[in-house]
Amino acid sequence: MSGNAKIITITINPEPVVSAGLDAIVCSDVVTGLLLNTNGSSVSAATYNIAAQTVDAGLTPAGTNVAVPANGVAANYLATNRYTNTGAIPLLVTYTVIPRSTAGCLGNPQSYYVYDQSRTSCFQWP
């Protein structure tokens, strides 16, 4: 005995893809200005998960930086982070970011690098 055939449809929602070109070079004590976004051809991200942060030895927070890891944050979450580099060479902060679509789909992790120039290698107008 056989039953009636049933058609089952499964919808596969797209995942957001974060832009690969968000690395930045900033001077010591200057905000990163990092604004997260997608690559322009994928579905947009509603929020982001900041999965990890690696800070080179020799960099110290310059003010109150945001907590990492953090989930469900806005694109500008990291924009006001600042670090002090009193050494003679540029140092690096690395953030690992995962985009999340409005449908709840997670994209692949992407690492972003913020090169913090030393005070001696940056000249800024007062």
What does this protein look like?
By secondary structure, this protein is an all-beta fold. The chain has a single domain (24-121), classed as Immunoglobulin-like (Sandwich). It has strands spanning 24-27, 47-55, 59-61, 70-73, 83-85, 91-100, 110-117. It is elongated.
SSE topology sketch:
Layout: E1 24-27, E2 47-55, E3 59-61, E4 70-73, E5 83-85, E6 91-100, E7 110-117
Parallel strand pairs: 1-7
Antiparallel strand pairs: 2-4, 2-6, 3-5, 6-7
Key terms for this structure?
5-stranded mixed β-sheet, two-stranded antiparallel sheet, 126 residues, 33% strand, mainly beta, single chain, Immunoglobulin-like
In total, the number of strands is 7
What is the CATH C level class, in words?
Answer: Mainly Beta
* Name of the CATH architecture: Sandwich
Number of domains: 1
> Strand share of the residues?
25-35%
* Approximate shape: elongated
Described by strand count, sense and barrel closure, the largest sheet is: 5 strands, mixed
Strand order of the largest sheet: 1-7-6-2-4
Pairing-aware structural class of the strands and helices? mainly beta
Rg to the nearest angstrom? 20 Å
Unreliable stretches covering 5 or more consecutive residues:
none
Ends: how far apart? 86 Å
What's the SSE pattern? EEEEEEE
Overall mean confidence score, pLDDT: 91
How large is the count of helical segments? 0
In helices, the fraction of residues equals: under 10%
CATH topology: Immunoglobulin-like
